[in-house]
Write a structure and sequence with these properties.
single chain, 183 residues, mainly beta, 8-stranded antiparallel barrel, two-stranded antiparallel ribbon, 12 strands, disordered N terminus, Secreted protein, DUF3455, signal
Length: 183
């Protein structure tokens, strides 16, 4: 099972109770885990994306794998109408209109399953909108949830020999927007 079917099944089977996202096409049917890191009152889910193809690349420095890997991923919206590229920064760019957001790293909230990356809440620190009201223009926070894979390589590295190692991962990305933009 892959793609949206796997995502829907995973969301339906997850443990614990859930809060349901806003009933909009971009989030319809997405169930936000109760323990998901969220920005709090005054924000709503603007869109939910899932990694369709992603790697985290670790660099060998002084005999150890880097703690902050470089992402390279393609994300698709749940409604199938939008694609984002996720790259170093962390940064997300809309393939539809070129709008880009850059977020500030945040401390981990929680990790799930063996080999999974921590769940995060990232604060959007920069907006680069190629067009007025770009697809990502209103995004204020990004939650990284339901991570699988992407943990640092389990073997030691040798500086000068092992320079980088890409590890596959998957995750859900929840893009939060203000309830009342412009106020």
């Amino acid at each position: 099972m892959t793609g949206l079917a796997a995502f829907t099944a995973a969301a339906a089977v997850g443990a614990g109770s859930f809060a349901v996202a806003d009933d909009t096409p971009a989030t319809e049917g997405y169930r936000l885990p109760d323990d998901a890191p969220q920005p709090g009152a005054g924000f709503r889910i603007g869109a939910v994306y899932q990694v369709s193809d992603g790697t985290l690349t670790y660099t060998c420095t002084d005999g150890a794998w880097s703690a902050s890997p470089t992402p390279e991923a393609t994300l698709h919206s749940l409604d199938g109408t939008s694609t984002l590229r996720h790259t170093e920064g962390p940064q997300w760019t809309s393939e539809r209109d070129g709008s880009t957001i850059i977020a500030s790293p945040a401390p981990a909230s929680r990790a799930t399953g063996p080999g999974g990356r921590p769940w995060l809440l990232l604060n959007v620190s920069e907006h680069h909108d190629v067009v007025a009201d770009g697809e990502l223009a209103a995004v204020a926070f990004v939650s990284v949830l339901n991570t699988s894979g992407g943990a640092p390589p389990g073997t030691p590295c040798v500086s000068g020999f092992d320079t980088t190692r890409a590890v596959r991962y998957s995750a859900d990305y929840v893009f939060w927007t203000p309830m009342n933009p412009g106020r």
